Amino acid sequence: MAQAVTLNSRARVLAAAERRQADRPATSLRCTPEAWSALAGALGVQTSNQALDRLDIDLRWIAGLPFIGPPERATPQLGGEGADFWGCRWRPAGNDFNTYYELCESPLAGAQTVADVDNYAWPSLDWWDYASLSATIAEITQGNRRAVIFWAGGAFETPWQLRGFERFLVDLRLNPEIAEAIADHVSDYYYQRALRALDAARGGIDVVGSGGDVGGQMGMLLNPAAWRRHIKRYQARLIAPFKQKGLKTFYHSCGSLVPVIPDLIEMGVDILDPIQVTATGMRPE
Fold first, then answer.
1. Whole domain around residue 149: which residue ranges?
2. How far apart are CA 98 and CA 128, in angstroms?
3. Which of 23, 46, 263, 269 has its CA 20 to 30 A from that of 81?
4. CATH number at residue 164
């Protein structure tokens, strides 16, 4: 029997995305700050990236860019107290294991018309330090060719955060033009930002990630037909163009999203990140 060829991390991830057999399963790891700290301590290293190296994790994440926009919108999404770059406000909520941040103010909650949405103070694409990407990629790969994923964003979760979850779901039924206007602005921004990031990375990005939780434990959070009618084309903007450029594509959602998995495949998704696999119908096999 021929001996299996050992692949580097980038080749291993690309093989998995292309349904080719690799020397071992490709790996990825994301943690809360508290878990990263505990893991680094257990492994005797200083940083999360050193922990990833010690565990020989293949996929390396660029989940954000250095923010150089106005300080009043500088709070990291889902990771700090205050207003994020969209204008959504977050507050801390703790438990016995970690501190997380929950949405407390949706800036488009009072929008009555599409004009109200269009006239909102949307963020500028110039609020990010794209020039730092090459150095970031060099740091997280450390000369050992890891696969690099850039997180673009999503066309469902951010829009409902801007509007408010209940209002957004009601809009899908009663005021779809408002929901679609928000999804249009959001997905276009994420698309344009990803294009700038890819240009600045000079070939250093292998996978473009997108997503947003559309599932609950038992099924989808919204009717699949409504998702197809009002969300799908905006989500496709964050998948299909990058697939066409020869990049691999990644979609994340918690919960059960079984009805729309064929739609994601149609869009060009290579890698589905299904958290949690105990939700109805989501066991990998």
1. 9-68+109-274
2. 28
3. 46
4. 3.20.20.210
